[in-house]
Model the fold of this input.
Amino acid sequence: MTAPDFASGASSPLVELNQVSLAYGEGREATLALADATMRIAQGEFVAVVGPSGCGKSTLMKLVTGLIPPTSGEVKVRGERVTRPIKGVGMAFQNATLLPWRSTRDNIMLPLEVVEPHKSRLRAERAAYFDKAQKLLASVGLGEFGDKYPWQLSGGMQQRSNVCRALIHEPQILMLDEPFGALDAFTREELWGIMQALWLERRFTAVLVTHDLREAVYLADTVYVMSRRPGRIVKIRKVELPRPRTLETTFQAEFVDIVHELRERIQMEHG
Amino acid sequence: MAMTARQERYVRLAMPWLTLAVLLIAWEIACIVFDVPEIVAPRPSRVFEVIVQRWDLLVRFCLETLWTTMIGFVLAIGFGLLLGLAIGASPFVYSGLYPLLIAFNAIPKVAIVPILMIWLGIGALPAIITAFVISFFPIVVNVATGLATIEPEMRDLMRSLGASNYEILTKVGIPRAMPYLFASLKVAATLAFVGSVLSETVGGNRGIGFLMLSASARNDSATTFAGLFAIAIMGVAVYAACALVERRMTRWAFRGELVR
Done:
């Protein structure tokens, strides 16, 4: 196990999916997006889900966060069955969806206006929260851009802000839905490093949905490979490369071997 | 011939005035060349003469029209905003009211003015209500569109943070709908004039519409055209005011133009 060993960590995982299926639509027109998914995600673990496009990866994220209920099976978080959106989640999507009428800093502080206990403290402790946002921005190299508007930032900067917004309220679980998908290769690799540094510092539980295998192996402790629609989990691969991983790591034999192994499994789905 | 940026700006500012001048001169020349009788189409110079001669009268009737229009317009903003928010935020309100709204909008408003007169008599009230009724529809449609097109990711993100529908509405929906609202105000403002003048022309004893109607009954074309000019000028002025407010309130939506 690469995940930190808590007293009860091994016996009761933070997130648990038991035989979860999800069908969109009703009756004869229903399409099965996800079939019999079973997953155990430990506290503080970094999990990546890879698979061909349209295999229900994003569906998986919505199920874990309780945004949609499963058609069958059960989703448990902290041992409790999920029936509505769970607390303590941060989300970042491929599309940064920053609000154009707010400055970057105000965008990042949006969760603080919604999530308790920050919501009721925000007015009184504005300065402290302001500092907190500023520190977070600085940690991803955006220290001087807090007053800029999102449309004045580059795509990579927007995605960094997006990740900051997902983390400002210190969620226990971070959901990343192809957050670096729309970026160029160099910016993407740079953001892997930033993402890893944030995770090593804060040790949140992370679920990363991606179709970039190198990204998955670079960031994750465990990689889940999904089949074509209806998505099934066809392979679970632990990545036990030492951290912090660097771009150099991505050229090492162990790293490349894991990528190839995953690649082959996904190739079978296309075959 | 290359122009500097400053020259280009001046020319662009002057363009509408130049176009107007060319149109009026062409009109003037056409009237003289074809010997058009004044009762059919008065020459622009004749219309200006009348405007100067009857300035006090025109201003008085214009102001009557202006304030009825503005009251109707303000009512339309308030009502349109509320209804637009309700329709945009709730699928039930949408499916319940939207077809009715479209049906209502299809009714020629000239048909309801006589009904209003039966209910309310003549005076300012029918004009206010006609201005209101004709101008709220674009506001409703635009505000509802602004709300309905919130990115699904943004909605998911807010929901995953535990935001209530009210919070999603106030923090994301309403600011997002603002550029749509202001865009519709420019259309609605000019429509409001159409409404109030329509009502004054169908039946009434006040406003620029009534002035035009009584002038045309006396075969006084020049005064009728002076009234038309007055309405056009008021329309442009209110449009410009709306555009100015739009710029101030939703600067972020004009980001492309900030660069220039």
User: Anything to note?
Assistant: Confidence is low (pLDDT under 50) at residues 1-9 of chain A.
